[in-house]
Design brief:
The longest helix has 27 residues. This protein folds into 4 domains: 181 residues, Nucleotidyltransferase, domain 5 (2-Layer Sandwich), CATH 3.30.420; 76 residues; 103 residues, no CATH class; 28 residues, no CATH class. The chain is an alpha+beta fold. The C terminus is likely disordered. It has a 7-stranded mixed sheet with strand order 1-2-5-4-3-6-7, sandwiched between helices. A 4-stranded antiparallel sheet has the order 8-9-10-11, covered by helices on one side. It contains 19 helices and 11 strands. The chain binds zinc ion (ZN). Zinc ion binds next to helix 17.
Length: 439
């Protein structure tokens, strides 16, 4: 075809350029290519759904979900991130990435959708199909401000909260208020106020700043600008952190997680790829995911193998023990320093590596105590104390305060109820608790 065209136009043509222009006008997947990919998904226990174009019977939208994606959505469907990415195949069809966050705070994929355009109809099809295949709706959806996508979310996920990515909103604000001058102190002050609106955490400050900004723009008779801002403020609960309704969001305020998924996809496919080239991405992404699950499992078992954790395991009920192991894991992210070293008592400062100013004091004497209030509120050992236990290589729970109510007890009639002293005897003699009781 290329040679033919070159002969016709009697000039050299860049094949890909021509092809891209052609595909932009007629986005379609190659029938065999799409079929190959569908077979791959089916063979691996995944599910898919297509929309067929009525004019030429070709596939114009393709949603697919591997078994792992389906399972992950089943477990972690509370938060759904939606983001479109481009240049992943030579058919110039955008790829819509549906993703979320697992229990380890890692990015997980829920589904990928190849679409021929980004109209309201298309996004409606994407959401409707996805919810039909999964039978569950998220509590929270985070997306960019694409008008078609937003309308589709409003219609198809009425029960879900919708948030706009704060970063995208800030970027749009930057574009729209670029004209305010940096060398005019008043302009500059207002400009900085505008740019920080999405991230402001205190509601009163947010409201105060909005009034100041609008008054300033009105005073300067910048009609377009204040109308733009007033209009944006009608959806402030979707993009301003201080205005978000208080619901579980795992701290997600931007689609940056979705974008990091996109960046990963781009390592496998580009604007010259076939649809079926996504296979490799899907396989490797899921292999890595399963592998990193194993690593997480291993680091937990490292903590559990410490003598202190083993003693806790014998002392605590199963769930309070798990709570304690969680604190143990957190302790690994902390640092410490000696504050005072007296004959009998030693005082440490303990802080999380990222927050050096938020320090807690742990006193080591007859008992090890902390001023964070965790023991008072929860009745277990806090991460700060555990940090010092790791540092000082504390092997016994003797010096730790644990509320009696969390102890492993059984029905008193069975007699399986023992004191710390008995427990230590059991532990030292390496007897099973049952042996003591039956004596
Ligand atoms: Zn503490």
């Amino acid at each position: 075809m290329k040679e033919h065209l070159e002969n016709v136009f009697s000039c050299k043509l860049d094949y890909w350029k021509v092809y891209h222009e052609f595909r932009k006008l007629y986005p379609r997947f190659g029938a065999q290519d799409a079929q190959n990919f569908i077979e791959f998904i089916e063979k691996n226990g995944g599910i898919h759904s297509e929309q067929i174009d009525s004019t030429d019977q070709s596939i114009c939208k393709l949603l697919f979900q591997t078994k792992l994606m389906h399972q992950n959505y089943e477990k972690f469907h509370d938060i759904l991130l939606i983001d479109a990415t481009y240049s992943t195949n030579h058919f110039s069809t955008p790829l819509v990435v549906l993703s979320g966050i697992d229990e380890n705070y890692r990015n997980i994929l829920f589904g990928l959708v190849l679409v021929n355009d980004e109209t309201l109809n298309t996004y409606t099809w994407v959401l409707r199909t996805f919810f039909q295949l999964n039978q569950k709706k998220p509590n929270l959806i985070v997306s960019d401000s694409d008008v078609s996508l937003c309308s589709a979310i409003a219609a198809e996920a009425k029960s879900s909260q919708h948030r706009l990515c704060s970063w995208h909103v800030a970027r749009n604000l930057r574009k729209n208020f670029r004209f305010l001058k940096n060398d005019d102190p008043q302009d500059l002050e207002i400009k900085e106020m505008i740019f920080s609106l999405p991230y402001e955490r205190v509601s009163e400050v947010f409201e105060g700043n909005c009034s100041k900004i609008i008054a300033y723009l009105k005073n300067k008779e910048l009609k377009k600008s204040y109308e733009y801002l007033e209009n944006l403020l009608t959806t402030k609960n979707k993009w301003a952190i201080s205005q978000h309704p208080l619901i579980f969001d795992a701290g997600v305020i931007t689609t940056s997680r979705a974008e990091s998924c996109n960046a990963l996809i781009k390592q496998y496919v580009n604007s010259k790829s076939e649809i079926s080239d996504l296979k490799e991405f899907v396989i490797e992404f899921e292999e890595k995911y399963i592998f990193s699950n194993e690593i997480a499992q291993k680091s937990i078992s490292l903590i559990e193998n410490t003598i202190l954790a083993q003693e806790m395991k014998r002392f605590l009920s199963t769930n309070s023990y798990f709570k304690q192991i969680e604190e143990f894991g957190e302790a690994l992210a902390y640092e410490n320093q000696v504050k005072e070293d007296q004959e009998r008592d030693k005082t440490y400062l303990v802080w999380r590596a990222e927050y050096p100013n938020k320090q807690r004091e742990v006193k080591v004497g007859d008992r090890i105590v902390c001023n964070c209030g965790f023991f008072e509120r929860i009745g277990l050992v806090c991460r700060h104390i555990l940090r010092i236990c790791i540092y000082d290589n504390v092997k016994s729970i003797d010096k730790l305060r644990i509320m009696d109510r969390w102890r492993m007890t059984r029905d008193k009639e069975e007699g399986l109820h023992f004191t710390l002293f008995e427990l230590r005897n059991v532990y030292e003699k390496k007897l099973a608790p049952l042996d003591v009781i039956q004596k």
